[in-house]
Amino acid sequence: MNKFMYLQWRRLTGSIATITLIAVAAGCSAPEQTQNNSQSSDRTSQETASAPSVSPPLPEVHDIGEVIAIEDQNLNLQLTVNGVREHPGKGVIKPNQGNKWVVVDTLLSNKGQEPKTFSVVSFEVVDDKNNAYEVALLAGALEDVELPTGEIAPGEERRGKVVFEVPETANELKLLFKPNSNECAAAETESKASESLKCEPIAVKLD
Taking burial as the number of CB atoms within 10 A of a residue's CB, which of 25, 61, 150, 179 is the most buried? Predict the structure, then answer.
């Protein structure tokens, strides 16, 4: 092989080696870039899924002693919260450790023309963190607790005490009264909404 051909062969060999190295480098970096993009996408999805949901704001909040008029197509009602206190329980009938019983004294007056029926699902309490607490049914066995539930005839009123079990650390409690709880639950199940049906709860500040 003469000197000229030897130089040409060296240049050709060097070019092939360079092209091979570029191809290998490109093949290695592509999966890495794809993996990085995939990891970034996964992180974005996780952050979106873990974002806290925003609770809807409470309706207008009333005060203890205020006579609250509630009117719609189904009822003409007045609600008054007369007071609130804690109950320690009696004997084995008592709240769980770390909790307390809050007794809400209420008065319901039926100003309409038809009898209306209310149950414990019409009442609940929420705290400053928007945690909801249902009626403590066990407290209904106490002698000095009488629920304001049942049927109320037109022109009649029903006074009673609703008891809730909440943590001892619960603050800024509010009573929520849902006068059309059954009708609203049925309408929600059937995906029907009525502008004249009052489904927004009545809120009363307890402390």
Answer: 179
